[in-house]
Specification:
CATH superfamily: Class I glutamine amidotransferase (GATase) domain
Strand order of the largest sheet: 2-1-3-4-14-13-12-9
CATH topology: Rossmann fold
Radius of gyration: 15 Å
Number of helices: 5
Number of domains: 1
Distance between the termini: 18 Å
Number of strands: 14
Strand content: 25-35%
CATH class: Alpha Beta
Length: about 200
């Protein structure tokens, strides 16, 4: 399994790299379109702001190649948000691989934003990516923005409001939580992704 790991400037790059290697994947860091060649899976992690993430992808010449990918793609945290058409953060356009708009979590008097820490996953739709992950399983989140629960959502989470925690459409998938920090649940998701063969 040849995994191309996109360097989008996120602090979680190293931990995602190690998590994939522990599952037996051959991982290479990608900072150019040419480095995508031969990959059988692509992972786009990210931590930070949407505008800066897209600027980095554009500077590396990766926007068009990511849009044209013919192999499974997994976005993680900010990487998942960049899969959408637009983010209210920085009023930034995303890759447009998933329909919809990423918005800031509303929060409230007893709800801190960013949403940080462990929270439970609620199943929304069946998917091979959820194999072995039961409803109510815990996952680790750190984010202030989130995508809505929509037709592409396969698992949701609630922090004052429901939002998409795991999404999938065709070959494109995304996790708002950090699988590299989510213990057995995160390892199972990454393993499922490595074995995933979407039609």
């Amino acid at each position: 399994m040849q995994v191309a790991l996109i360097d989008a400037g996120g602090a979680n790059l190293g931990s995602v790299h190690y998590a994939l290697e522990r599952l037996g994947a051959a991982v290479r860091l990608v900072r150019s379109a040419e480095a995508l060649h031969g990959a059988t899976r692509v992972v786009l992690p990210g931590v930070g702001a949407a505008g800066e993430g897209m600027r980095r992808l554009r500077a590396q010449g990766l926007v068009a190649p990511l849009r044209a990918l013919q192999v499974p793609l997994l976005g993680i945290c900010l990487g998942m948000q960049l899969l959408y058409e637009h983010s209210d953060e920085d009023h930034s356009d995303g890759l447009g691989l998933l329909p919809g708009r990423v918005r800031r979590l509303a929060g409230g008097p007893a709800l801190r934003v960013p949403h940080m820490g462990w929270n439970t996953l609620d199943s929304v739709a069946a998917s091979p990516l959820l194999a072995g992950i039961a409803a109510g399983s815990p996952a680790y989140f750190v984010h202030s923005y989130a995508a809505p629960v929509s037709a592409v959502c396969i698992a949701s989470c609630t922090h004052g409001e429901s939002f998409a925690a795991l999404v999938q459409s065709g070959r494109v998938a995304g996790a708002q939580f950090h699988p590299e920090r989510s213990s057995a649940v995160g390892a199972r998701l990454l393993s499922n992704f490595l074995q995933w063969n979407p039609t």
